[in-house]
Specification:
This protein is α/β, with parallel strands linked by helices. Helices cover 41% and strands 22% of the residues. Strands 4-3-2-1-5-6-7 form a seven-stranded mixed sheet, with helices on both faces. β3, α4 (90-102) and β4 (105-108) form a beta-alpha-beta unit.
Length: 172
């Protein structure tokens, strides 16, 4: 199978860190579960998480739980650089470490930190996917930039924004 054929079955995530979210964690997780289940029904078998606190780690955990029922699912952890979460503490560090253990593949998009490392990681995820699931609060930043980049690359986009789910299905 070629890289382009594999890409057709890959889906990535974008979303904010917890402190930028207005909605409760459980509400966001329910929405993510619904979108991940829809993606599985649509034939997506590989999911890519950017490994950040919040939406990225919640979505990755949902995928690892779904693997119990769908053994053909795969999870790619796309970290911006090695040691990205080295200074994290407590529950978030535990979630990150669990993701590193449960992921089928860990990709360090860059070999060190630099000013554009997060955007480079986000573009890598979009470039290797055919759908983006995003949880967006409407503010400028990395989540908006990732959604805009996905639009530019014309991949399917499912985004929660302003209390509703928006779909942009680009046909090839």
């Amino acid at each position: 199978m070629t890289e382009e054929e594999r890409r057709l079955h890959r889906c990535c995530f974008t979303g904010h860190r917890p402190e930028k979210l207005k909605e409760p964690e459980e509400e966001i997780k329910v929405w993510l579960e619904k979108q991940i289940d829809r993606a599985i029904e649509d034939g997506f078998t590989t999911f890519i998480s950017g490994c950040a606190m919040g939406v990225d780690l919640w979505a990755a955990r949902i995928v690892t739980c779904r693997k119990m029922y769908y053994p053909n699912l795969h999870l790619i952890a796309a970290t911006p650089w090695p040691g990205f979460a080295a200074r994290w503490k407590g529950e978030w560090k535990d979630r990150y470490d669990s993701l590193m253990y449960e992921a089928d593949l860990v990709v360090n998009v860059c070999d060190h930190y630099h000013a554009g490392v997060f955007q480079q990681r986000n573009e890598w995820m979009v470039n290797h996917s055919n759908r983006l699931i995003g949880y967006y609060n409407g503010t400028p930043g990395g989540t908006k930039n990732t959604i805009d980049y996905a639009r530019k690359k014309m991949i399917d986009i499912v985004v929660w924004q302003d209390e509703e789910t928006l779909y942009s299905d680009f046909c090839r």
